[in-house]
């Protein structure tokens, strides 16, 4: 009786068994990496809250994607924190409050945040003007709460009286004006004038700080002009004319122009019409100044910029996008239908957002700032101890911001950036770049003089080195040794302070025989009178072996970065590199078995941590590292022919074995076992990649092993079912083999392809590609 009950149950549940087996295989073949065991038990206790204050774009044709990037990156960070036990056993909850650039809504959002239960910190608020209104309305509540408030305000005077308020932005008073003053002294400008728009808080802070700076005695004119209309962009015409006449009479050789980017065009035009054309230090976006004005203006225009070096990407941001599916990191480009430009016809309806566009990369960096601050807050609070009250956690965060990560002593290593804060102003320590728009060049670049902060907090001059790396060929790429050989030209604009001996190639292989870099340097032109080369340039041909940091998760459909990494050899001769525009760089590179996808230049602002072993005094030494990067995609034709096609035929042969008559079931199993062994032998015959994670190639072989093993399992069941003459169950197994296995193969392959870049998937799905591969005309 038991035998009959077992037979009946098997007949009724054969479909359930098949589906269960299918789900098991799909789960095993998922392209996601197997997660490590959780570092801590699930978070317990009431959750702690962190409030984020953001502002959506309004008035623009397309959304820049800042808020979307914040939501994505912060949620990822939140999941990571909670997976590790939260903060001292308490889960972290994130509340995102959108002020939409409205003052009243921003005040209400801060009030809502302060009312959240177990509020650990507030992060955000990016306008100095709205910040003034917030502290005027809720200043006492913010101060008395003791809640760490990490704002994004650039004027430190706005929150000077609130010891629990910090800023992720450098302040106008502590960073912009000191660098501006140091640059003016180095360049030798003698008569300085300030022309600003009356009203904005940050402009008022710049003008007032100049009066108290090291160049206060050179400030010969100070004009603050109101707008002609309340909502207009133009300044009062008569007041502007009077200001220009006054500055011209005082022979100002540099004007600090802080009237807003849109208004700057009209003011520069008014300068030219009045035959008054001094050098300009623009407070605004220099790249948006109209080309016709900047090209005709007969003097240099400068700008201080914390964003990025012209023609150079931030390395960490670019790298994270390039190593994954770029489309997953596209945040900009959503159409804002309410923008006035759509009614006025000034918006571009054909605009196509790009993952690597400057706007999208800035959105990612902005979102990473919020994610970094969430990480900083939770790590600092965790150091307070597991049974610590919320009040003590808040104090631990404030203490970390003011002491542990104090400028010159320590830095918090975020995902994309390092973070330090001035203890006195409680603003971020980040020295701006000095950008120049030469009147003869027509495009921006770094000025010859730059500055970095010393550990004592003073400014130190460093040089801009104008460099280009022209890659000739890349060869002998070794995946397991993570190395490649390269031949390239190095061109350097001559500098009295910096030479080739002051440059260090960070990723050059060390030769054990000489204990030096594995490089051969040939001087092509080292200076002197000649008609062949520009006298201001130095040319070298360099050959050597270099390291690269591969990611084999998508092997053999992977894309890797091959770079030449340059940084100063000595801290006494620091520099930052300015490359030429991408359009002027040579795109031709000779490389075997790889295709050049793109090339770019990126930089990383790093710190060397130093601890005095005697006094135990910590400090950090900042420096810039520049990478000339060639992004290359591996050619896969050989893999298709040597691996994918044979595996496909192995699967087909094993699958077709089901149609052999049942009287030859032993032959069926023999054929399937042979197919399994053939797949194993093929895998062992391939060059093995030394990877810490399973590659796409590994998953493809595992898929083949599982499918053939499942066929063997079904065949064994059929032998047992046939011996008991269970015809219905035998038919069910045949259907499982004939129908479910192809479905399982397709689903598993789709999961594997999901991890690949979109372009690779499109290529694999293209009949034209396969037709060209096998030579069909």
TrEMBL record:
UniProt entry tagged with the keyword Oxidoreductase: no
InterPro entries found in the cross-reference section: BCAA_transport, Leu-bd, Peripla_BP_I
Regions that span the bilayer: 639-660, 667-686, 701-721, 733-756
Gene Ontology BP, a term: amino acid transport
UniProt domain Leucine-binding protein: residue ranges: 74-321
Entry's family note: Belongs to the leucine-binding protein family.
Protein name: ABC-type branched-subunit amino acid transport system substrate-binding protein
Species of provenance: Dichotomicrobium thermohalophilum
